[in-house]
Write a sequence for this structure.
């Protein structure tokens, strides 16, 4: 019996805590940060990506079939 009460209490507490956490994000905070915020210079990353061709879904044409699907001898 105590395990059912504990499970009920834990579930209800988590539900209330989650609701308050999500609901708290809807309202803006009116307090200003007490410490100044450091702003770093913008970083631009440049580079190239070498992409290797993969033949995952490619079906090679058989040597005995032509392009129109007819078999050649």
């Amino acid at each position: 019996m105590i395990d059912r009460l504990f499970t009920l209490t834990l579930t209800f507490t988590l539900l209330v805590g989650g609701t308050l956490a999500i609901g708290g994000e809807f309202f803006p905070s009116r307090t200003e940060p007490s410490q100044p915020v450091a702003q770093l210079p913008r970083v631009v990353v440049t580079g190239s990506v070498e992409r290797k061709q993969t033949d995952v879904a490619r079906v090679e044409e058989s040597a005995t079939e032509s392009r129109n699907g007819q078999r050649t001898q």
